[in-house]
Write the structure tokens for this entry.
Amino acid sequence: MTLRARNTPAQITAWVRAAVQGCREQILESPEAFDATPVRWIIDRVLQQSKADLGQRLQPVINATGIILHTNLGRSPMSDKAITAANNAARYTNVELNLESGRRSKRGERLMNLLAQLTGAEDALVVNNCAAATVLVLQAIAAGQEVIVSRGQLVEIGGGFRLPDVFRAAGVTLREVGTTNRTYLQDYENAVNDATGAVIRVHRSNFHLSGFVTEPTIDELVLMERPDSVAVIDDLGSGSMVDLTPYGLDEPNVLESIRAGADLSLFSGDKLFGGPQAGILVGKTRWIEKLRRSPIMRAMRVDKLTLAALEATAEIHLAGKALTELPTLRMITTTPDTVRNRCESLLTRLEPSSLLAVVPCESQVGGGSIPGSSLPSYALRISGLPPHHLSHNLRHGQIPIQARVSEEAVVLDLRTVSDQELPSLADGINAAIRETHHFANTETAPE
């Protein structure tokens, strides 16, 4: 594909101007060391810029890392139904119109009803991510007051954002109780005073404590003695709707939080819920209504594409088909034997080579979330070639393939690859191996 076919004239012009300026600076700085013709130097620099730009463009990637919730690859892939719903909503859609009555309706009204029905909560609300949900709750319910939290739950989430900073941004005072490893119900009860606005439990979604540790359950926090004006908030993180303990995942369950009587339960719309990125809030109507009336709610509301995808995802949960139709949960519950069979099927599509082998491995449920949770799996191991060059060629194929490098070999864990992706994966592997063989024979490193 030519440079002009995949880039706009404005982009090419900007790259050429930058390359010309760079060429001038190079010649002025050390003309004796400039061993290329200016035109050739400029062309090479423009092609480098084009490749760099291509690597940043959003495009489909085959995830062969075995990391199910891969932050760099967009975490939870959506279901086919959610993708179709979002695609349909990209056109004109009745986002705030009741087609039966012909009158204006509330944005996302049906989705809120579905979420309430699914979780057993009185009401629901959706914002653009779980961090936004936390800020909204703290600001709308406890601004100018104290919020009690266990010291062991003061987490730092992705991007360097720390919970104490979130508290300050929301205009609330952080009231720490307990110690890093042990917090008791009595610690919370002793901290409640006239300035208390809420009590919050925060799930440590990106690390875990083990050993000599203890903290109250959400049931105990709900039943503790407190004024009616003090809300109990449960920040659950991943949004698990089903029991995943048989698969080695001990994640807080949204349904249990609501059954315990939490005033508000917060969780992610992607991750284990399996939809698009969003922050979902479910709980009691009196508190949800306060959030709806917050001045910052408008800045946090989601668009029609997110509403449509979440609606389709909630319908899958309600239909009892989450483990089969939601890719994330399907990958988590796939047996090791099924993954091994997928590896063997892939092997038959590849050009015969002694470099290829099917090997046992461990898949990771999450990269930046759900720590310490691994699943037995199988992978295709490619050895005997420069691994970093091979992984480079896999990423630069017609459909990028993200693998992992381990012990001087490239490993492709097929737990995170669907059967439908196998033909494209095989084509990409064959091409990458041929290119890497050429590199090994010529000893020319990639740019």
In short: The chain has a mean pLDDT of 91. The longest strand covers residues 356-366. The domain at 60-74+328-442 is CATH 3.90.1150.180 (Aspartate Aminotransferase, domain 1).
